[in-house]
Amino acid sequence: MNARAETAPLPLDVERIRADFPLLSRTVHGKPLVYFDSANTSQKPLSVIEAVDRHYREHNANVARAVHTLGEEATAAYEGARDALARFINAPSRDEVILTSGTTQAINLVAYSYALPRLKPGDAIVTTVMEHHANIVPWQLVAERTGATVKAAPIDANGELILEEYFKLLTPEVKLACVGHVSNVLGTVNPVREIARECRKRGIPLLVDGSQAAPHRRVDVQALGCDFYAVTGHKMLAPTGTGALWAKREHLMAMPPFFGGGEMIREVRFEGTVFADPPHRFEAGTPNIAGFAGVTAAIDYLEGIGFDRLKAHEQDLLAYATDAIAALPGVRIFGQAKEKEPVVSFLLEGAHAAHANDMATLLDLQGVAVRSGHHCAHPLMQFFGVPATLRASLAFYNTKAEVDEFIAAIGRVRKLLL
Ligand SMILES: Cc1ncc(COP(=O)(O)O)c(C=O)c1O
User: Fold this and answer.
1) What residue ranges define each of the domains in the chain, with the CATH number in brackets?
2) What would the mean pLDDT of 37-49 be, rounded to a whole number?
3) For labelling alongside 81, which of 279, 291, 354, 376 has CA 20 to 30 A away?
4) In this structure, how many other beta carbons lie within 10 angstroms of the beta carbon of residue 371?
C-alpha cells in the first residue's frame, strides 16, 4: 500500500447516505428528483427530522424560564446546540456563540450592535463584489445612517477576489472588513486566513460570512484568525430558522444588545436596565428551540461522515459536473476559481439561449431542481453583465448518475426550446 492510499479517506457509501434523506427518494412531476439546489437549502437527514419531532413529542417547554423537568430538558437541548456549534467551528468559548435565526440575523446583529455605534462620517466598511446581499445591504443601512461608505473589492473574470485591491481598500477609515468564505454563486473559496492576517496588521476587525463554507469544509475560526463568523443551519442539514454568530469576546462585551426583551437582561428597572452577559444578551425572546435540537443532530451527522470523506466525494462530483456542463454547446460558466466548493453557475447562450428562469421551470418538469435568478447577488450579476444564471449546487448526497440525468434533462429541454 503506498502512502497516498494509506491517507486517502474511505469513499462515501452514497447510496446508504441517500437512504438517510427521506425527501431524496420522492418524485417530482413523475420523475425521480434530482436535487441540485443545496446552496439554497440542504435536505435534512432522518436524524435531524427525528430530533425536531422528538423535541415536540417529549421535551417541549420554553428555555430558561422554567425549573420543571421539561423546561430543563428544553434548555439543555438549546444550550447543547451552542456546545455543538462551538465545537463545530472551534470557537475558543461557547459563550462567544450567539444563536440566531440564520446568517442574515447574525450579520445584522454585527451591523447594528457593533458597526452602527462606531461609524462616523467618512468611515468605511469593506466588502466584496461577490457577496450575497446579506453581506452588503446591512452595511449600506448602517452606512446611510452614519455618513459612512461601503466599499466593494473587485473580482477577476474567473470569479476570484483581486486580493491586492481588497488590501488597498483597507485604509485607516475602515472600521470593519467583510468577506464571504465561499461564494454562493461561483463556489469560489476566498483566502480568509490571508485576508485576516492583513486586517490584523491594520487593526481592522474581519467578519466572515460562512453560510456556504460550513456545509462543505471544516471551519476553524481560531485558525482563520477572523473576528466574526456567521453560519446558517438550514444549509448544513439543520432546520430553517437556525444559525449562529461567533464573535471574539472582546467585541461581544463592547456590543449593546440589538433586540430587547425577555431572557437578555440581568435586571430591569425603569431607572435603567442591566443586560445579561453574552451570549444571552443577544438572544431576546423565545428562540427556535426545536430547530436547535435539529442543529445538534445535523452537526453529529456531518461529523459522523467526516469532512475529509465528504470533501473527497464533493470535489469529485464538482469536477465531473463542471466537465459535463462545460461540454454543453454555447455554455458560459461563471466562476472558474482554483479552489471551489461544489457550485456551478452557467448560462446557455447562442441558438439555445433561454431565460434562466424558463430553463429552471422546464428542468423542474424533468424532476431537476436548480436555482435560477440573481441569487441575491445583484452586484455580481452586474459584474458579469447578466441578469441571472442557472446554478447547480451539489452536496455529498448527490451522485454522478444524477449529473448525467441533469445533463440529459438539459438536452431534452433544449429540444423543446428550438
Ligand atoms: C453566502 C450567503 N450569505 C447569506 C445567506 C443568507 O442566509 P440565511 O438564509 O441564513 O439568512 C445566504 C443564503 O442564501 C448565502 O448563500
Assistant:
1) 3-44+307-417 (3.90.1150.10), 49-304 (3.40.640.10)
2) 98
3) 376
4) 23
209 lines ligand 1 (CB under 6 A): yes
Of the listed ranges 16-25, 168-177, 294-303, 341-350, the least confidently predicted one is 341-350
Task: Decide: helix, strand or coil at residue 125.
Answer: strand
CA of 41 to the centre of ligand 1 (A): 9
Q: Is 101 in the pocket of ligand 1 (CB under 6 A)?
A: no
Which residues, 6+ apart, have CB-to-CB distance to 39 below 8 Å? 184, 212, 235, 343, 371, 391, 393
Ligand 1 atom 14 nearest Cα = 40
Q: Is 399 helix (H, G, I), strand (E, B) or coil?
A: coil
**Cis preceding linkage at 279, omega within 30:** yes
At residue 171, φ and ψ (nearest 5 deg) are: -90, 170
**Mean pLDDT on 76-83:** 97
Which run of H or E residues covers position 149?
Answer: strand 149-153
CB of 222 closer than 8 Å to CB of 90? yes
Give residue 414's pLDDT.
84
Give CA–CA dist 415/402, Å, rounded: 20
Task: Give 390-405 pLDDT, tens digit per residue.
Answer: 999 999 999 999 999 9
226 has catalytic annotation = no
The pLDDT assigned to 43 comes to: 98
Grid coordinates representing 34 are 434530482
Q: DSSP characters for 159-194?
A: S-B-HHHHHHH--TTEEEEEEESB-TTT-BBP-HHH
For ligand 1, pick from 184, 208, 234, 374 the residue to mutate: most ligand atoms within 8 Å of CB.
184
Distance 103 CA to ligand 1 centre (A): 6
5: pLDDT strictly greater than 80 = no
State if residue 128 touches ligand 1 by the CB under 6 angstroms criterion. Answer: no
Torsion of CA 370, 376, 378, 381, to 10 degrees: -20
pLDDT in tens, 93-143: 999 999 999 999 999 999 999 999 999 999 999 999 999 999 999 999 999
DSSP letter string, 322-341: HHHHHTSTTEEEE---SSB-
Per-residue pLDDT of 180-229, as tens digits, reads: 999 999 999 999 999 999 999 999 999 999 999 999 999 999 999 999 99
| Ligand 1 within 6 A of CB of 102 | yes
